[in-house]
Amino acid sequence: MKHKKHIIKKIFRIVVPVVALTAHFLLLSFSSDKLRECKPKIVQINIYPEYLRFVLPNDIHQQLKGIHEDNGALPYGKIYNAHQKLIHNPWLSETVVFMPHPEMAIIECGQRRPFFRMQNSKGEHVYMDSSGKIFPPVKHFAARVPMASGYIHENFSRMKEFSMAQILNNPNLSAVFKASDVWKVLTALQQDSLLSEMIKNIYFDPHGNVVLIPSIGKHKVVVGKTHRLNEKLKKLSIFYKEAYLKTSSADLYTHIQLQFKNQIVCSMKESIKP
Questions:
Q1: Which domains does the chain have, with CATH numbers?
Q2: From CA 255, how far away is CA 84, in angstroms rounded?
Q3: 10-residue averages of pLDDT along the chain (274 residues)
Q4: Which residues of 183-204 are buried (b: 16+ CB within 10 A; e: fewer)?
Q5: Burial (Cβ within 10 Å: 0-12, 13-18, ≥19) of residue 234
């Protein structure tokens, strides 16, 4: 699925500029006076990928108010203005505006693909995409992606000033922004198909420990700090495959602790203890 998305995005980046360039040369065959007179009455808006609904066609129309005319026509001279306005849309990662024909303008919009969602201690939410850019949620749509919450005191406005690469490579920034821990955990989880399917929620306790909340059972997985992360998750994967999923122990434990080297410590429910 991930490979398919990569191929689609690659095709989008190659095909759309080629089409736009072809359209540009076609339009150059008209005189400059005729170009200035072009007011395409048909404005076609294509938004990708279709399974995401952060941006709707009406949102694009609203954002371009004052650029296109009352009847919806988009003058040729305003094509650049339209593009400049759309590139500041926080939910879009790619935009192309072009005229394949004097009577038609096409607006291609590529939406940001969320990697995870975060909620800080103030109740503020943001998404982060696969390139490390954060963007706000919308009221009419919620993407089904992993969620991070708990004792997160992130200042999302300040976090926008840095790329994820800068945060990950700077110990001081990593200590401030929990998003770096979320990124590390989810990236590591993606290496294991079982864990990536089972774990969709990450919680930070008051001590800054990472706690994973699986989609089955009623237990919590205490990872602790993110050092030796791959080793810890490998232990968890083996435990799930060799013990947990092969027995009727799904409801025996309250906590599975991974902090200790070369072992897993499981806490049983009080009602089950001998």
A1: 2-111 (3.10.20.310), 114-268 (3.40.50.11690)
A2: 51
A3: 53 53 49 56 88 95 81 77 93 91 88 97 94 94 96 92 92 92 95 93 95 89 94 92 69 86 82 52
A4: bbbbebbeebeebeebbbebbb
A5: middle
